[in-house]
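Quick one: examine this chain and its backbone structure tokens and tell me how the chain folds. Here goes:
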Amino acid sequence: VGMAGTAQADELPFRPEMTSEQAIVVDIIYSPHQTPLLKQASALGRTRGHGLPMLAGQAAAQFAAWTGEDAPIAIMLASLAESN
């Protein structure tokens, strides 16, 4: 829903204010890093997570499948963090 460049980029899948104070709100979108959902969850003080770890995990699995080697996941995550 929140992926940049889509017609639904500003839509929310649910109302974050309906979550409890202990809720963890995760949006697996990785562009933009802070989606409308995560921005609203942040404003409510909710713990939140984004999609970059999922993106890195997918890339690591693809790297391993293609090369037969373990992916340099720490380097991949560091690179993603620098790009955002």
Observations:
- The chain is about 40% helix and 5% strand.
